[in-house]
Design the sequence.
């Protein structure tokens, strides 16, 4: 079902928008992976999933799973809930199990959609997941996601950066080190956004 849903979404994107993908060569072909992306639109997970060469299991806010039709779609694509505003150990355990099985986890660390398009501060979950899983992080950026259905004159772009590798095997990182890790990941996404020439609306 995942592949069918992805093909349908790609068809919609190809018909109604001019979307482009850059940096696919940076995607590790196998092994556990954490995708980290900016978030400005409900189209972000669709664009990320369609651009990715591997299946992605997204963390999605728990409230979305209470919406009947959306709940079905989320389960079809393998998403799992996370409770915002608190430490969700269940979501962390689910993510770690998936990564142990060499799957790809998709996260929007801002925790909500940015209304201005500017990258918001990252929540602390992604750094803890990176520490626990000890796997590469792939920074991403989606440009103009809000304009997916506004026609071909509004280019939409998905950009993959180079994987970030961390190793915590020797010692447990301090709180300061985890905060620094969060900022390194955020800066990698910001650099992708900054590297793009602003597309005229």
Sequence:
């Amino acid at each position: 079902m995942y592949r069918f849903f992805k093909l349908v979404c790609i068809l919609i994107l190809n018909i109604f928008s001019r979307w482009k993908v850059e940096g696919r060569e940076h995607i590790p072909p196998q092994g556990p992976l954490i995708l980290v992306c900016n978030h400005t639109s409900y189209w972000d997970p669709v664009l990320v999933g369609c651009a990715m060469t591997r299946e992605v299991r997204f963390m999605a806010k728990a409230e979305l799973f209470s919406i009947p039709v959306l709940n079905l779609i989320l389960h079809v694509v393998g998403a799992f809930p996370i409770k915002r505003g608190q430490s969700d150990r269940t979501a962390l355990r689910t993510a770690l199990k998936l990564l142990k099985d060499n799957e790809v986890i998709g996260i929007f660390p801002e925790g909500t959609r940015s209304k201005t398009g500017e990258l918001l501060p990252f929540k602390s979950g992604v750094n803890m997941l990176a520490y626990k899983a000890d796997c590469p992080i792939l920074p991403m950026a989606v440009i103009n996601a809000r304009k997916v259905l506004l026609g071909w004159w509004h280019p939409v772009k998905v950009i993959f950066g180079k994987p970030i590798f961390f190793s915590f095997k020797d010692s447990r990182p301090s709180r300061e080190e985890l905060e620094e890790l969060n900022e390194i990941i955020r800066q990698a996404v910001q650099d992708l956004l900054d590297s793009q020439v602003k597309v005229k609306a």
Notes: The mean pLDDT is 90.
